[in-house]
Specification:
The protein is an alpha/beta fold. The chain contains seven helices and seven strands. The longest helix is centred in the middle third of the chain and has 19 residues.
């Protein structure tokens, strides 16, 4: 099996074991990984063979190609655990660290809506952008064990900084290099605009 799935990976690759909702997992990162970008990599094996150690090289390749951190789960294997238990482990409910239907479907829908608005109403004055705010803590992430202490390692962009970027986009056209596949990189733009330290407009709210 080691010949088919090599276990060696580059010296610069880091592998961080963790457990999410009772499932053994590993974060795989390379020097090319952007902490704000995450790929959920479900390895093959037909739910009967292989596991984390056999897929580190593949995860490393994905991390380099996508410039992202890669989360690899080690689902239970048959015959000890029967299908579809493996799917249940990979798709935990939101309060256990998984995704519900509404979250990914709404993101996908809005992403397409923005492109349509820009094509259908080019001279209407309507400004529409897909803006990626970077990593922020959500209820699902907390359920998965990812909290503010974890995020301190990656210095996430503040909501105030992203708000400043949104305000700027209301009256300005972003540079072409700020967009990746049609999505604007909020933290990078905030840095370009000098808004990383922007003050929150909600500080004085009652």
């Amino acid at each position: 099996m080691a010949r088919i799935h090599p276990r060696d990976y580059a010296a610069g690759t880091t592998v961080e074991p963790l457990e999410i909702a009772g499932v053994e997992c590993a974060w795989v990162s390379t020097p090319a990984s952007d902490p704000s970008r995450i790929v959920f990599f479900v390895h093959g094996g037909a739910f009967v063979s292989t596991g984390l150690t056999e897929y580190m090289t593949y995860a490393q390749t994905v991390a380099n190609f996508c410039a992202a951190r890669v989360l690899v789960p080690a689902y239970s294997l048959a015959p000890e655990v029967q299908f579809p238990r493996q799917l249940d482990e990979l798709t935990a409910p939101p309060d256990e660290g998984g995704w519900g239907f509404a979250y990914p479907s709404s993101k996908a829908a809005i992403a397409r809506l923005v492109a349509s608005l820009r094509v259908e109403y080019p001279d209407s004055g309507v400004r529409a952008f897909n803006l990626e705010p970077g990593m922020v803590v959500t209820e699902t992430m907390r359920a998965a064990g990812i909290d503010e202490l974890f995020l301190e390692r990656f210095k996430p962009c503040s909501p105030a900084a992203i708000g400043a970027v949104v305000a700027w986009l209301a009256e300005n056209e972003p540079a072409a290099e700020w967009s990746s596949n049609g999505t604007l990189r909020g933290p990078a733009i905030a840095k370009q605009l000098g808004e990383l330290g922007a003050d929150s407009l909600l500080d004085d709210a009652a």
